[in-house]
Amino acid sequence: MILPPKALVYPMPVGIATAYDHEGRADACTLGFVGMCSHVPETVMIAINSTARRKTLESIKESGCFALGFPRKDQAAQADYLGIESGYRTDKLAAIGYTVTEGRDVHAPVIDQLDVTLECRVVGTTDFGSHTQIFGEILCIHASDRVIDESGRPDMSLADPLMYDDYGMQYYSLGEKVGRVAKLGRAFLGKGRDGGDVAVADAGPDQHQGDEGALKGLLEKLDRGEEVASGTPEFELFDRCAREAQAVTAAINTGYHDEAELRRLFSELIGKDVPQGFRLFPPVYADFGKNISVGEGVFINSGCCFQDQGGVRIGDGCQIGHQVVFATIDHGMEPEHRHDLHFGRITLEENVWVGSHATILRGVTVGHDSIIAAGAVVTRDVPPRSVVAGVPARVVKTI
Ligand SMILES: Cc1cc2nc3c(=O)[nH]c(=O)nc-3n(C[C@H](O)[C@H](O)[C@H](O)COP(=O)(O)O)c2cc1C
């Protein structure tokens, strides 16, 4: 069936925009026309009907700012009321017993009863069609303790936001959490490309559960320093992990992420949680991803490359400079063995500082408190408390 046109986003969030009028009276109006429109600066867009009288629109235009809160499912009746009564006629917030606090960064009322509220400064408006589109740069987000998860972020299942269907004119609550963004779709990566497998029947959860077991076995084998013959299922697992690593690093390397988000994404890349004090400046690249471990207080600067199949262990407090390469694979020396792969773990003991553009090769252990000078190519173990420099790197000083 083809239906007539309708401004339909399915479902819509329910937002509540608030602003002070020129006499300092707070008003609020319910909005479905709410959307993100930019990461830099972090900006939201709301659209308010300019063909009808809306007190909130007038107040936002006058004050140059607004707050945008998100009601919970159990606040549906209050939200609905704010969308059918006008502040021109009544003090709507008083009518539902809601109170407000002055914004921290803007002169806009923040509704105390809402769990998540954005403080926004108007950075632009457009009049298109029936509505005025208002662009609000988000200056801060109020989030009540009840919606914050253990990683310090608002968790949507705790926030229980109200949604609405503009077509059916019904409110809905969110369903269950379905799965991780930029992870669920990875089952299809590479499918349908030239030479790729277009069938998706084998991309379901079973294969991934199987992969988890196989990955554990592969990592143990690499840990024992054993070879992995090409053409074996284990070898093919390298390829699947490489594509997963490309997907996660693409997410890390695109757009802006705060430190907590980078820790979450890097944990996903390496398949285990990183310590709280771990810091990363993107971009970062990994050939495999699943054989990296980082200690407490490690900092990795931008542009580093992890060819980590053989294992990269970075001890507590290590600092890795720009564009450092960890290369854990050698090829066979003899031409007839040139396509063989030999893996060897790289270990940095605690408190190692690796200068920019250094390359550390397969099997190397760098002793604690040592320094690798910028541009060095480290082919052999480095004793503790040593400074190495050059190509190949040699000890130039003992600390
Ligand atoms: C669920 C819901 C969503 C709404 N979405 C919008 C919207 O996106 N834009 C808009 O201009 N009005 C929207 N309205 C209507 C306004 O909230 C309503 O006209 C309100 O009474 C305006 O109040 P005010 O005059 O105090 O600003 C919506 C109403 C409801 C109930």
What does this structure look like?
The protein has helices at 55-63, 76-82, 92-95, 156-159, 205-223, 233-252, 259-270; strands at residues 12-13, 15-20, 26-31, 34-38, 43-49, 65-70, 100-102, 109-111, 116-128, 131-143, 162-165, 170-173, 279-280, 284-286, 292-294, 299-300, 304-307, 312-314, 319-320, 325-327, 329-331, 341-343, 346-348, 353-354, 359-361, 365-366, 371-372, 377-378, 386-389, 394-398. The chain is α/β, with parallel strands linked by helices. The protein folds into two domains: 12-173, Electron Transport, Fmn-binding Protein, Chain A (Pnp Oxidase, Chain A, Roll); 225-398, UDP N-Acetylglucosamine Acyltransferase, domain 1. Strands 3-2-6-9-10-5-4 form a seven-stranded antiparallel β-sheet. A seven-stranded mixed β-sheet has the order 13-16-19-24-27-29-30. Strand 7 (100-102) and strand 8 form a beta hairpin. The longest helix is centred in the middle third of the chain and has 20 residues, at 233-252. The protein is elongated. The structure holds flavin mononucleotide. Flavin mononucleotide binds at residues 14, 27, 29-33, 47-49, 54-56, 80, 83-88, 164.
